[in-house]
Amino acid sequence: MKYKRILLKLSGESLMGENNYGLDTKRLIDFASQIKEINEMGVQLAIVIGGGNIFRGLKGADKGFDRVKGDYMGMLATVINGLALQSTLESINQPTKVFTSIKMEPVAEAYSKPKALEALNNNEVIIFSGGTGNPYFTTDTASSLRAIEIEADVLLKGTRVDGVYSADPEKDNSAVKYNNISFDEVYSKNLKVMDLTSFTMCKENNMPVLVFNMNTIGNLKKIILGENIGTLVKN
User: Fold this and answer.
1) What does residue 60 show for φ and ψ, rounded to 5 degrees?
2) Bridge partners, residue 125, by sequence
3) CA–CA gap between residue 63 and residue 195 (Å, rounded)
4) 178-220, pLDDT tens digit by residue?
5) How far is C-alpha 67 from the geometric centre of its chain's CA atoms?
6) Contact partners, residue 83, CB within 8 Å, separation at least 6
């Protein structure tokens, strides 16, 4: 196996499936099945989920919500998503633990690195919800932070496109896909991979980021086995 411990970042929108809002049961089952499969291979797996399928703080601010309150609403949306994925995983007999960045027992356990590592070593899948616990930070930043904290081998960013392109492939047919690219090249070419805060954290802490299409069933396992899937960003 190429990776032994990974941090998987999933967008809230990815959980919508074919819906325009909320959660799609089939998509949850597809994700859970792939996650269980690689966990059974011996991979330690942590997950950060966004909340954009329910509420996004920035969009709330555009509509008149206080930015700080809007961001906290977004954090709560990630907890809902985390509990949904946990429930789906447990329904297929995959032990899973949800940690929150804001204390909210009995909903889930407050995050700490020692507890997270203990759960990983017990072969549990762990889900980090609530973002960083602070307004003005995205779940991309939360994924970078947690990946670095748990000393993951790689941060896997699951998206609906199959890697990093020179332009938006959904809008520009001439867009070229990169198989490998450095953090500095992403900066210089002004490519959109993650927000700047999270991206800088990964660069400064030598945390490679692999962008891939999570919606294609089997891709997660192929990455673990070392196949050339998606785009690898590293120093």
Assistant:
1) -65, -40
2) 96
3) 22
4) 999 999 999 999 898 898 999 999 999 999 999 999 999 999 9
5) 23
6) 98, 107, 108, 129
* DSSP conformational letter for 15: G
- For the chain, the domains span 5-234
Q: Residue 178 pairs with which residues in a beta bridge?
A: 164
**Rg of the chain in Å (alpha carbons):** 17
Q: What span, in angstroms and rounded, lies between the C-alpha atoms of 93 and 121?
A: 17
The alpha helices in the chain, defined as continuous H runs, are 25-40, 57-62, 67-91, 113-121, 139-149, 183-189, 196-204, 219-224
Residue type at position 32: A
Question: How many CA atoms are closer than 13 Å to the CA of 5, on its beta-carbon side?
Answer: 18
Q: Which CATH architecture has domain 5-234?
A: 3-Layer(aba) Sandwich (3.40)
